[in-house]
UniProtKB/TrEMBL annotation:
It holds the Pfam family His_Phos_1. One of its GO terms (cellular component) is cytoplasm. The lineage of its organism: Bacteria, Bacillati, Actinomycetota, Actinomycetes, Kitasatosporales. One of its GO terms (molecular function) is phosphatase activity. This is Histidine phosphatase family protein. PANTHER family: BROAD-SPECIFICITY PHOSPHATASE YOR283W-RELATED (PTHR48100), PHOSPHOGLYCERATE MUTASE (PTHR48100:SF51).
Amino acid sequence: MRHGEVHNPEGVLYGRLPDYHLSELGKEMAERVADHLAGRDITHVVASPLDRAQETAAPIAAAHGLKTAVDERLIEAENVFQGKTFGVGDGSLRNPSHWKYLTNPFRPSWGEPYIEQVVRMMGALGAARDAARGHEAVCVSHQLPIWVTRCFAEHRRLWHDPRKRQCSLASLTSFTYEGDRIVSVGYSEPARDLLPAHLTGKGGKNQPVGKSFGA
């Protein structure tokens, strides 16, 4: 699960910075997903150590009588623009000293390599799978690590256009295992109607999607 909306009036790229908490809307998103998952066989809830992820996980854990575990491997990706506003017209990209970080979008050169994110995230998923073996686990993480892990599981390239990620606020990207092997990936948005209009795209319907893999 990706965390809910964050209170961020300055519009900075908060990355791994502390003290970025859910907004009131973000808390509502977390409660919505907790309600959506209330009937599921969840025996393990784990989250990134960042405040927004822990706060998103809390109502889900509470609904199942669980404590939220912490896994550092679920943390947001490192990014050199952390703490700055990011865009062409706001100064971050206008500063020539920053241009060296934009030379390789395939790695990427501005932050933690995609493959390193996949390695740590797959480790976290494996640990959650083992902790909930025969049941279900919920892992709360962040958009980019979730997206590249999904790309890896679906045998797609890791580099991508950030504008085309399918990983909205409070969305669920589900990995189904048979034994130790991922056999399908699904995606749904239980809190879609709470998303700001500019994030919902076209269509406006919350239709779960998924992909299964052959033997």
